[in-house]
Design brief:
single chain; alpha/beta; Spore Coat Polysaccharide Biosynthesis Protein SpsA, Chain A; transmembrane helix; Glycosyltransferase 2-like domain-containing protein; membrane; transmembrane
Length: 494
């Protein structure tokens, strides 16, 4: 039994690493943009924002520089929720002032108060005011907090300074808004206001914390043309944009999380989408059997199809997961765009746990998918067999996430009494670390990780430690779900 478990896990590692090599080989530089005839469509990019004032200007600027031929309009969608949260969080400033006066470590302060200021701002505040009296510290940070611009105010100023003609700022007046409601609000605004509508126009959801690939325009156009204006496309991404900024023991742990998530994206998500879209092109019966899901960043829809689909579901916590389920039911292929985007990985343990808890919480909502689907797509009820495929599809990954690390730890403890088993498990742990280090090297070669000197040994230790503890956010969510009635985890929790 022990040997079988070892072989299953080992070959899973090998398969994922093989998929990464296969993916990176597929993602070669596409045709030059100048060689592509774009002409017939407009790309509307929606950037839903909540407390993104420190990065939004750079993201817009980089997106605009990526598109030289395609007609692009960028819609930045803020929400009044940001203003209400700013008011609600004001009382935390007193706690922050006490923490500074007590000379708490900066990483601890960043963990507790990242909903008030960005990490860099908190570090600067700690260094500047740690030697002052409580009263002076409180007055200073209250002034800084009050003067802090919202995302809306930041974008207004940026549009004026940079004279951006094709950047449109929208604000959803909704204090309980979510990403899905912001995206739906954006699509509705575009659909109502566009005087010249083309059935081939596209609508892309883009996260503010991402860096666009230099191949984005060429890859997008190439896939749209090759697939004759498909209904849905999907960008993929890795999580190493701030990889070089990590330092210390916690930094190595966060590097491990970044490599793990990037490995999942390249070794699982892209191959999943690529194989199902290939099955669709071949009209294979396997296309009907394969469930798939979407990723929030880079969801791209033809404008008319987005309306026919019923827009994004605002009731579920992970709208991208449900959208993938919906497309599986409707037998709509998801065409992957052959460009690797880069995004920020959480900068603190606290924010990392919040992110993983949110993602895991979406698994629980899958049991409500049938009701969501029946409400909006009664005429296609017979396709609900996809519901059961999706259940199995998600439960498999849920069990792997939830119990994988625990099984490894138990086996490791039991193996101390039997040397051969201990050697096998040590081999497994070493292989896991080596595969992640290989991925680090591959991403460095593609400039997705800054080329600098890294302590490979400590990074490997960080990978191993993360692999044994990556189920803690999931277990924490389950415990809170049991302890707190009607407990929910929202994407905006930080």
């Amino acid at each position: 039994m022990f040997l079988v478990l070892f072989l299953v896990i080992f070959f899973r590692y090998v398969r994922i690493n093989y998929n990464i090599l296969w993916t990176l080989n597929k993602l070669k530089t596409p045709a030059l943009v100048e060689e592509l005839d774009t002409g017939l469509f407009t790309l509307n990019i929606c950037i839903p924002c909540l407390r993104e004032q420190s990065i939004i200007e750079k993201t817009i600027s980089e997106l605009l520089s990526c598109f030289k031929i395609v007609n692009v309009r960028i819609y930045v969608v803020t929400t009044s929720k940001e203003n209400s949260e700013k008011t609600e969080n004001y009382h935390y400033l007193e706690e922050l002032a006490w923490s500074i006066c007590k000379r708490e470590k900066s990483f601890s302060i960043c963990e507790k108060y990242n909903h008030l200021f960005d990490r860099e701002e908190l570090i600067w505040i700690c260094e500047k005011y740690q030697s002052e009296e409580f009263k002076d510290v409180l007055a200073s940070i209250q002034a800084i907090y009050s003067d802090k611009k919202t995302t809306y105010e930041t974008v207004v100023e940026s549009i004026k300074i940079n004279n951006w003609k094709n950047v449109i700022l929208l604000e959803e007046k909704n204090d309980t808004s979510c990403m899905a409601s912001q995206v739906n609000y954006c699509w509705k605004t575009i659909n109502n206001e566009s005087s010249e509508k083309s059935p081939n126009d596209y609508f892309m959801v883009y996260n503010a914390d991402c860096k666009p690939s230099t191949d984005l325009e060429a890859s997008l156009v190439k896939e749209i043309k090759a697939n004759e204006y498909p209904d849905v496309l999907q960008l993929i991404r890795v999580y190493t944009l701030n990889y070089s900024q990590y330092s210390g023991i916690i930094g190595h742990y966060l590097k491990g999380s970044a490599l793990y998530q990037s490995r999942w994206s390249l070794g699982y998500e892209y191959p999943m989408l690529k194989r199902t879209s290939d099955n669709w092109k071949k009209q294979s019966f396997m296309f009907k059997l394969r469930s798939r899901y979407m990723i929030g960043h880079g969801m791209t829809f033809r404008m008319d199809f987005y309306g026919q689909m019923g827009k994004l579901n605002e009731k579920t916590n992970l709208e991208d997961l449900y959208t993938g389920y919906l497309l599986s039911c409707l037998k709509i292929p998801i065409i992957p765009i052959l460009a690797i985007e880069n995004t920020l990985n959480p900068s603190t343990i606290y924010s990392l746990f919040n992110q993983k808890m949110t993602w895991f919480s979406g698994m629980f909502d899958v049991f409500n998918y049938k009701n969501y689907y029946k409400k909006n797509h009664k005429e296609n009820y017979y396709r609900l067999r996809s519901y059961y495929f999706t259940i199995c599809f998600l439960i498999r990954d849920t069990f792997s996430w939830l119990f994988g690390p625990s099984i490894l730890i138990i086996c490791l403890l039991l193996s101390f009494t039997k040397l051969p088993y201990f050697l096998l498990l040590s081999t497994l742990i070493t292989a896991n670390a080596c595969f992640c280090l290989l991925l680090q090297y591959q991403l460095m070669e593609r400039n997705l990780i800054n080329k600098k000197k890294y302590n490979w040994l400590f990074t490997a230790i960080g990978v191993v430690f993360y692999s044994f503890t990556r189920n803690l956010p999931a277990l924490t969510f389950i415990l809170k779900k049991i302890k707190i009635k009607n407990y929910k985890k929202y994407k905006t929790d930080r």
